[in-house]
């Protein structure tokens, strides 16, 4: 899962439990939808990506730089300097685990589990919207 600074999930990928997280970094960055807001061309990707030590590979750092994203990834074997920023992702993961069907996977079919995951992220986004925006919708 990749989320913005406010804890709103931007993109989610479903993989097996024995897959390394870093293998899904670039597909998650590519899956971020365009951000609407100001006039002009919508921004496609974030400016900065904050991650923990598990994503500390020079090839992925360089791939992010080629896409115009500045990686803030702590080096392995050093003190973690991004811990104060990464709590937002941990909070969003905790919100996903409030849905019992996602905390423990009982479904054998991945399409059902992916549907429940998409529904849960939609509910999280809906709850994060301010009331004034919800009334306009």
From TrEMBL:
- Transmembrane ranges? none
GO BP: DNA transposition
Give the organism, scientific name.
Saccharomonospora amisosensis
Its signal peptide is none
Q: Give the top-rank taxon of the lineage listed in the UniProt record for this protein.
A: Bacteria
Note the NCBIfam families from the entry: transpos_IS5_3
List, alphabetically, the Pfam families matched: DDE_Tnp_1 (PF01609)
> InterPro entries given for it?
Transposase_11
Q: Which GO terms describe its molecular function?
A: DNA binding; transposase activity
What is the protein name stated in its UniProt record? Transposase
Instruction: Give all residue intervals belonging to the Transposase IS4-like domain.
Output: 2-123
């Amino acid at each position: 899962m990749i989320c913005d600074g406010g804890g709103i999930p931007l993109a989610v990928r479903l993989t097996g439990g024995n897959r390394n997280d870093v293998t899904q970094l670039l597909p998650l960055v590519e899956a971020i939808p365009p951000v609407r807001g100001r006039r002009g061309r919508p921004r496609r990707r974030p400016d900065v990506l904050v991650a923990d030590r598990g994503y500390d590979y020079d090839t992925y750092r360089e791939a992010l730089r080629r896409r115009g994203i500045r990686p803030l990834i702590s080096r392995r074997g050093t003190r973690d300097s991004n811990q104060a920023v990464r709590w937002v992702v941990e909070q969003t993961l905790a919100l996903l685990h409030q849905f019992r069907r996602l905390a423990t996977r009982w479904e054998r079919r991945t399409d059902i589990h992916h549907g429940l995951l998409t529904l849960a992220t939609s509910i999280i986004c809906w709850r994060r919207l301010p009331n004034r925006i919800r009334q306009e919708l």
